[in-house]
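Re: Re: ligand-bound prediction request (bumping)

Still looking for help on this. To restate: I need the protein modeled with manganese (II) ion bound, output as structure tokens. Inputs repeated here so nobody has to scroll up.
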Amino acid sequence: MPYAFNPSETVTVPVQGTSTSFPVRRIYCVGRNYTEHVREMGGDVERSEPTFFTKDASTIVQSDTEIPYPNNTQNLHYEVELVVAMGPDGVFGYGVGIDMTRRDLQAAAKKKGGPWDRAKNFKQSAPCSAITPAADADITGKRIVLRKNGEIVQSSSLDKMIWSVEEIIARLTYDMDLQAGDLIFTGTPEGVGPVVPGDELEGGIEGLAPIRVRFI
Ligand code: MN
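Reply:
Sorry for the wait, this slipped through. Here it is.
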């Protein structure tokens, strides 16, 4: 039966060093995965356990894009994160993502015990770099850095993740439906903060393609 209208196109991110692109299916995100970030958000480190939430594939923004400051927030925050890209045979590769967050809406949702969707899963909320194939990338103990207007605002090490990539994959496989094309944003270290129109963000992890976006 023909579609009533054209379906939306598959969202992609480039695969670094190739002429192919990675077709995105779902985006899973991990909350509370670095102790110092749990602390800065006023969380209880002793009882910390990663939280899972999702963003739609359509929220992806490729690198070197200008992003209009979103509606309905006075406190748009950056969270730089390692992105794990799942392929047909396990981990396909790695990237750098920025989990953009309407922090004011998140605080209100937390207060009411309601869902985080409006705080996290909004238009252009998931900037993501090109994916570096796993065979070309060693992420062990690598530094993760976010620069705002050239100045370092987040800096940590991937070995500070509370739950490792392997543990996150095992947990998502058990709890959810992890398939080829899924991206996992694995949580942010400390130093999250706001952006305003005119700000440029550059997220980097040594050995991986960076993500660069500018807010207008
Ligand atoms: Mn996050």
